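Subject: complex prediction, re-run

Hi both,

The earlier run crashed halfway through, so I resubmitted it with identical inputs.
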Amino acid sequence: MNVLMPTSLAEACTLCAKHPGVIPMAGATDLLVHWPLRQAEHDKSYLDLSKLSELRGVRWTADSLTLGALATYWDVLQDARIASVFPLLPDAARQVGAIQIQSRGTWAGNIANGSPAADGVPVLMAYDASVTLASAHGTRTVPLRSYYTGYRASVRKPDELIVSIEIPLVACDFAVFHKVGARKAQAITKVGLVITRLASGSQRWRVVASSVAATIKRCPTVEALLNTGTPLKAPADLSAAFAADVAPIDDIRSTADYRRTVLARLLFHSLQGVYDGAAAP
Amino acid sequence: MQRLEGLSKLTGAERYLDDEPLEGPLKGCLWGMTVRSPVSRGKITRITYGAGFDWSQFVVVEPSDIPGPNETYLIENDQPVLAPGYVRHMHEAVVLIAHQDRNLLRRAVASVRVDVAPEPPALDFRLTPRPDQIQRGSDNLLKKLQIRKGNIERGFAQAHKIVEGEYETGAQEHVYIEPNAMSAWIEDGPTGDVVVVRGSMQCPYYVLNALKHALKRDESRVRVIQSPTGGGFGGKEDYPSTIALHCALLTLKARRPVKIVYDRSEDMAATTKRHPSLVRHRTAVDQNGKMLAQHIEVILDGGAYVTLSPVVLSRGIIHAAGPYTCENVLIEGKAVLTNSVPYGAFRGFGAPQTIFAVERHMDRIAAALNLDPLQVRRVNLLKDGDTTSTQQVIKGGTDRHALLDQTLHIANYDAHKREAEKFNRTHPYLRRGVGVATVLHGAGFTGNGEVYLNSKVDVAGRPDGSLEVLAASTEMGQGTNTVFTKIAADAAGYDIADVFVGTPDTFRVPNSGPTVASRTVMVVGKLVERAIDELARQVGQNGSPLRGPALKSAIQAWHRANPESELKGRATYQPPPDVKFDDKNYIGDAYATFAWGVCVAAVEVDLRTAAVRVLDFVAAQDIGKVINPVLATGQVQGGVVQAIGWALTEEMKFKDGGMHNNTLTNYIIPTSDDVPSIRVHFHENPYPHGGGGAKGVGELPMDGPAPAILNAVAHATGADPRAIPLTPERLLPLLR
Ligand SMILES: Cc1cc2nc3c(=O)[nH]c(=O)nc-3n(C[C@H](O)[C@H](O)[C@H](O)COP(=O)(O)OP(=O)(O)OC[C@H]3O[C@@H](n4cnc5c(N)ncnc54)[C@H](O)[C@@H]3O)c2cc1C
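This time it finished cleanly. Structure:
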């Protein structure tokens, strides 16, 4: 195992350019899983980000919250203002692994890992976060909703590092995070759903689904249905819209049928009392 | 009394084999690993050792290196130590490899290709095998057993109603905290070299017998020592014989010490599991729910080899009729060969499977008759003087009706039921319910098993007057050492500081039998007491057994008079009087005694996700006498948690006949967040033939929770679930 240990972001970017294929390493909670069994990974080179203090922690500006690429779930849980402004961030953070993982795992690592079952990504997406990438050639910012291009594939180039995640300060009057796992803790999401509603505007609803497509996904068809106030009498009234947005599969953790049914039921029941078009159950 | 090794386990100071430094006899040790079959059945056509490795630097063991028969000594010896050119299940051991560098070894093992000409595997035990799937006899049966009482036709002829049902349970992985691990080295002995095997195990003498058989050595040339063992639950009953043989073969070939430690996914894929089952009930009842005839068919998936399936089936059918009496009973059991990993011992040993079926069936009888499930239980529950399916007359003075009533009271059953029904009328998507199960568990070996075992315990009196208990019964987290210390101290009138329990080592301890079947405290504990009597007689005058300080001084005096000599009292098992079992016809006293239990579960079902949450759980049991309340409570709570997992989430998923979800990420055991506080109640009624008055406690807690929980789900939702694990994916379609 070859580990490079840059001490500044500039040095890190240079190393990325010099060592094509080097693998960035933050909390390593994804990278080291089943390590003894993954012998081929032992031969690769790693870029340890832990010395890059400029990437640590969370910062507030007048119109946004920035999570540095080394910001952990624990950092977010420690920040009282986050809990009041973006309550879904701690909601999700508390459901990632347990304390050990929460204190090492980073939000950026969660994004870069690209799992369709990630728990950090959907809440960031529902708050319309964007991702800033840096390389020896400069930096660029992309909206998280268009970051993924396919299963574990993204717009990030091999020599780019995620340096920060920005969340715009926009008021929501409704926000909910659902994680359906096979048990109450230490579970990988089988069906995930995040809903936010902006306090004002005409396109107020954001719906993000996880574990029901190749990537974490915004659901534009479902959002349009809600934005137009379509009456909903039963979960089944959401099925067609979800079918346009997501494509669940059978896998080792669940079934396509289960995922489809539960997704619609979760959204339907979450809307009770907050959605004008929703019928009483 | 505090658990002896509690603090060292709590602080992490206790070392399992994998944590131990490679010092002493393990200095210079090699790591051993196993090349496994990639398919479920077929003839091995070629084994190719990967390019890029200097194979002269590795130790490789193939079947031809086995000194004796290529057989794992157990009931039928049909399981090879290494696949003899033919594999019968995925992940079966084919070749062993050792090297000093663990990572290099992992790569080398991964480079070995085993080519197999595949043959059609039998993978579903519920189906009649096709001719090309037959691999044993004419029908793939591993064992067939029957219990017959009265005449079921007579009962069915008088039936007010006949209730039928089919119930299924899945495989379960033990998930002991320490995966299987073994070490081996060679020592000099008076009659030649000695193969020493030290590792994680429940039954040192099973391992010894397996080594003697396949290595062709007598017991002076093989020695088995238990290392601190992180849990077993039956998973370290027979499997350690396999890994011990592997380790010993590598050591014999390398002439160097060898250590094999499975990683979790290898352990999950390659070692034994709980037998999956299918149980069919056909019951004749009268208007009050009284059973007039029970016809029960039990089918167990045995996996690829016989291993322990005949005895698991035996216990399964004996418990299949539940804690009830019925005049006419026919129970037909079979264990079937399939090409999956051999199913083996697991806490309860067949009883949880058949009790799940009968307890779920009792509620379904009640539903069919429109009766309260408690009434159906009450009219059938065994009273002293009644007989079981094997015509064993129940005695001992435990009032099972009172135990049921008392448990319902503790559980707040009526209030739970009323409140659940009220809650369900208004909540948009949550449904609550309560369920009950009444259970029994025969403690100790079945039938004449204890007589055949002929267990022995020694208690040594040491020069300083202290006592050392010498038994092969192992401490694996359940508290054997603590309880033996207490039983011995009580029997001798000693302070616990003057009592020691020796490490199981076949050069030092006699065979007190396997550490299984809830027998350790009840059977072996009694032998500890009797061995102390014997010791006290040896040092006493004119046969009067000494106790306390008098015993201590007498032991010291004996040693002064007999320097350099060993002082030991020995006890050998004697069955309680009047216990008789006909093991041909399955008639008589299947167990010297039964432990009794009642479980009450309160659950909540989320109709959005079909997830079941257990809100409250009460487990009450008559285990004779509680020796250590904390340990006994821990046994019950742990058993209930394990049963909650079996009932709701622990689904073993297969791909091409092998375990596919062999990680703790995807094989879902409950976390502390998934279980309610488990309220434990003991009903004491000392059993005169058990150590300290105790009956077995280890397995009973596994029997009741699954049916109690499913009965509660049925009450909550009106659904009729009959298979476990009742995962949300399985429950969802039942709720539509
Ligand atoms: C026991 C356990 C439980 C878990 N539970 C959950 C859970 O409940 N929910 C959940 O979502 N996840 C869970 N995870 C997964 C993991 O903890 C999270 O995905 C975590 O956010 C990853 O962050 P990390 O810093 O550890 O990433 P790392 O493991 O360091 O990296 C993950 C990936 O991201 C890349 N990467 C990291 N940082 C950067 C960067 N700055 N720029 C570019 N690429 C980068 C790495 O190269 C790697 O491919 C669990 C993991 C474990 C071991």
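Residues A 23-31, 33, 49, 69, 96-97, 101, 104-106, 108-110, 112-113, 118-120, 161-162, 186 surround flavin-adenine dinucleotide (CB under 6 Å).

- K.
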